[in-house]
Specification:
- With 457 residues, the chain is an alpha/beta fold.
- The chain has 15 helices and 18 strands.
């Protein structure tokens, strides 16, 4: 550990030598002496100093002025003023200006050594406390990240935390599986640009076992696609179920990453993110088992309640409309009776695929039970719901369902729909009205009915 640095500033050579000799005892400090405040400021530009012992009265730059000019240094040195013309007023002025202590020339050697030692010890304790606080802060951030179970939230908060630790820059995070890139989070990139970069990096990062620095000059395909990049720090993450992800910290647009990075802090945080990533992947897999219908791969009725509650809160907050559609297959029992339950199960799987083609990626499909399905249509008004309901009805009617051994059969569906908050303002009302609208259509079959028609009957 380096010795504390003491700078003695006095325009009298006698006191420079005296103070140097007194403080040299025990070889506890590195000591330098200069003859003016101007020389002291010049020295401070080159060397970090812990304590300045300075005369109060000097030509050009006095001790009080030296205090003022050193306040902006990081870290600022402690200053002890020494003078032969002490008064109560001058002592108070010195302490108010920021002096650590005040001594009267000629100084008692023991008093001088004690004062300097106290300064040095206090600085050491403050530094250790600051390091402890920094480590606690880092630990708390890490704990928060490792506890995140939502992939998208984890990615966004991880990027913000890492970039804050770095001080500047931009970054992205992504998750991939056998189907390709499934999640992308970005900070400082457009979403499309972030996805493109993730696709270029994923093969490389899937083979990484630890954090690596990547120079873009060594990756011509990335350099060609992302001309503003010069270097990246990559922190790979791997799940237990073939999921792979990475956190990528990139240079700011127009400048490079600093040569000196807080690598230990960044690596610690990235390790906590990796733990959170593993937990989130496991949670996601477990949640999908709980809320997914085994036969069709659609969500089940348990998740419908959760999704509806979330969509109602979102729509209330932003003043949006959304719709709920109930789809019931007409005379489906006949398929089971004629072709068997195995063929019937196959038809239900095919229905799931037909329905996916009829809605947007933002919409959510559910198998409500038996041969009844539900579609949650976000930001969709009554007119839009009518269009989607008719699209579903038509798609089912036109599809030839395989029932085995090159046999096919035709089916129809009846659809009912309700819109929030036009028809209903609660989850129970939405489900009830969409269901009643569907049953209203069962009189004719192969039709779509609105909750508005239910209220007229």
């Amino acid at each position: 550990m380096p010795k504390p640095m003491i700078l003695i500033v006095d325009d009298e050579v006698f006191f420079r030598r005296l103070f140097s000799e007194i403080l040299s005892e025990g070889d506890l400090y590195e000591i330098e002496a200069v003859d003016s405040g101007k020389a002291a400021l010049a020295y401070l530009t080159r060397t970090k100093v812990d304590v300045i012992l300075t005369d109060m009265v000097m030509p050009e730059i006095c001790g009080l002025e030296l205090i003022r000019r050193t306040r902006s240094l990081e870290p600022a040195p402690d200053i002890i003023l020494a003078t032969g013309n002490a008064t109560v007023e001058s002592a108070i002025q010195a302490l108010k200006s920021g002096a650590r202590d005040y001594l009267l020339k000629p100084c008692n050697p023991e008093q001088l050594r004690h004062t300097v030692k106290s300064c040095v010890e206090q600085r050491r304790l403050i530094a250790e406390n600051g390091l402890l606080q920094s480590q606690i802060r880092l630990y708390q951030k890490g704990q928060h990240l490792s506890g995140q179970l939502n992939i998208d939230t984890l990615f966004q908060e991880s990027l913000s935390t890492l970039l804050n630790e770095l001080g500047h820059g931009r970054g992205l995070a992504y998750l991939s599986n056998q189907s390709g890139i499934s999640h992308v989070g970005a900070n400082g990139f457009e979403e499309e640009q972030a996805r493109q970069l993730a696709e270029l990096l994923v093969e490389r990062t899937s083979k990484m076992e630890k954090a690596e620095n990547l120079q873009i000059a060594d990756c011509p395909e990335i350099a060609e696609a992302c001309r503003s990049l010069s270097s990246l720090w990559i922190f790979p993450m791997n799940g237990d179920n073939q999921e792979h992800g990475a956190l990528v910290i990139c240079n700011p647009d127009g400048s490079d990453l600093p040569d000196s990075l807080p690598k230990e802090n960044l690596t610690f945080l990235a390790d906590q993110v990796a733990l959170g990533f593993s937990n989130a992947c496991q949670y996601q897999g477990t949640r999908e088992l709980i809320y997914t219908d085994d036969l069709t791969g659609l969500y089940n009725h348990r998740y419908l309640n959760i999704a509806l509650e979330q969509e109602i809160r979102r729509s209330e907050r932003y003043g949006l409309e959304f719709s709920l559609a109930f789809i019931d297959l007409d005379l489906f029992k006949g398929v089971n009776d004629e072709h068997g339950h195995l063929a019937g199960s196959g038809v239900l799987r095919q229905i799931g695929k037909v329905l996916r083609e009829c809605v947007r990626d933002a919409d959510t499909l559910f198998r409500y039970g038996g041969d009844e399905f539900t579609a949650l249509l976000v930001e969709t008004d009554t007119r839009g719901a009518k269009i989607v309901a008719e699209r579903i009805r038509s798609a089912v009617a036109e599809f030839s369902f395989s029932v085995g051994k090159s046999k096919t059969t035709q089916l129809t569906a009846t659809v009912g729909h309700a819109t929030f908050p036009i028809h209903a303002t609660t989850m129970a009302e939405m489900i009830d009205l969409a269901d009643k609208a569907m049953y209203l259509g069962k009189t004719d079959r192969n039709v779509a009915r609105s909750a508005s028609e239910v209220r007229k009957t």
